[in-house]
Specification:
- The chain is mainly alpha-helical.
- It has one domain.
- 64% of the residues lie in helices and 0% in strands.
- It is elongated, with a radius of gyration of 20 Å.
- The model has no long low-confidence stretch (mean pLDDT 88).
């Protein structure tokens, strides 16, 4: 089951990549919008960065030790 889901996800990513190449932005306003599939990579790496930062923040600042409230 896990491998089927991974294959489906990989196929979707490849399909979106090729669709981005086939249909570029027709009216780019900024220089980076002229690059093919830049928005896809920017969004993907931005999401990865947010996830990594949230995990770091949770482990280093938000979480408390298991015995934090045990003041015996």
């Amino acid at each position: 089951m896990k491998t089927n889901l991974q294959r489906l996800l990989l196929a979707a990513i490849v399909a979106v990549f090729f669709l981005g190449l086939a249909f570029p932005n027709p009216h780019p306003h900024f220089w980076w919008q002229k690059l093919p599939v830049f928005d896809m990579f920017f969004g993907f790496f931005g999401a990865i960065l947010i996830i990594v930062f949230a995990k770091w923040l949770g482990h280093n600042w938000l979480l408390k030790d298991q015995s934090f409230y045990d003041h015996d």
